[in-house]
Amino acid sequence: MSPLEEAARIIARSRFLVALTGAGISADSGIPTFRGRDGLWSRYRPEDLATPEAFARNPRLVWEWYRWRMEIVFRARPNPGHLALAELERMGLLKCVITQNVDGLHQLAGSRCVVELHGSIRRVRCVSCSYRAELSEPPREIPPRCPRCGSLLRPDVVWFGEPIPRDALEKAFDLCERADAILVIGTSGKVMPAAMLPQIVRSRGGAVVEINIEESDITPIATVFVRGRASEVLPKLVELVRELVGQ
Ligand code: OAD
Ligand code: ZN
């Protein structure tokens, strides 16, 4: 049996399947990954940009970087990988997507249950008051200011050294404690606590199905490793699952 067929069987007979996604699932939507050869951070040092200290030191620089990322994200469309996950949810198999991505493409693809561990680049919030807003385009003025109190606005994302929003983290742990299978797609598995989630499923006897173009830090605990691009593997996987469950 090929790894793809094995993955399809695990998914078809699962009772509570969840997915953990990383930058790799959005790579084929044109959004650069973080740690690849042409990853964002091969050109920029994360500690210069994605930290509260960096923002305090130089909000303009951090905002220039986010404006550039926002321009890419607002132009991007979901790819067949995102669409396949939305389809698995409609088929009643996939219970929720837990994502480290901040691009909102799972929701645009039609996924209804999405847990955003690292926030969203489509939102801003005030550093001083409770003001929050959805964006439909990158801010024109850099750095943008709060319309309520005049303080700086920041992207509503999680930076290095900051905690994951509590409700998202609780939901992710709860899902993984209930899951008997997890699809791990396009993540290097280098950032905690996301990287712990497959381990939770595995330690309770669940299956870990990994899809990635190369081996990751999750691969040693994977039940099945399917090598390939998420945008190509996931649609094929859903077709095989459909044959197995007769939908
Ligand atoms: P990384 O950039 O660390 O890893 C991307 C992974 O996707 C790698 O394992 C690649 O092999 C794989 N990949 C690339 N293209 C792919 C494709 N077409 N199909 C399948 N896999 C592909 O990204 P993440 O693991 O998401 O956090 O990084 C985790 C977190 O690190 C990010 O959310 C971000 C960063 O710090 C914050 O900003 C808080
Ligand atoms: Zn404010």
What is this structure's SSE topology?
Elements (H helix, E strand, L loop, with lengths): L2 H10 L4 E5 L1 H4 L13 H4 L2 H4 L2 H6 L1 H17 L4 H11 L3 E6 L5 H5 L4 E3 L2 E8 L5 E3 L18 E5 L8 H13 L2 E5 L11 H7 L3 E6 L11 E4 L2 H16 L2
Parallel strand pairs: 1-2, 1-7, 2-3, 7-8, 8-9
Antiparallel strand pairs: 4-5, 4-6
Helix pairs in contact: 1-11, 7-11, 9-10
The structure holds 2'-O-acetyl adenosine-5-diphosphoribose (OAD) and zinc ion.
The site of zinc ion has 8 residues, from loops.
Annotation, overall tally of beta strands: 9
Order of helical and strand elements: HEHHHHHHEHEEEEHEHEEH
| Number of discrete helical segments | 11
CA radius of gyration is 18 Å
Strand order of the largest sheet: 3-2-1-7-8-9
Percentage beta strand: 15-25%
Give the end-to-end Cα distance, rounded to a whole number of Å.
22 Å
Summed over residues and divided by their number, the pLDDT gives a mean of: 94
Gross morphology: elongated
What structural class do the secondary elements suggest?
alpha/beta
**Helix fraction by DSSP (H/I, runs of at least 4):** 25-40%
The distinct ligands, each listed once, are: 2'-O-acetyl adenosine-5-diphosphoribose, zinc ion
Uncertain regions spanning at least 5 consecutive residues: none
Describe the sheet with the most strands.
Answer: 6 strands, parallel
The oligomerization state is single chain
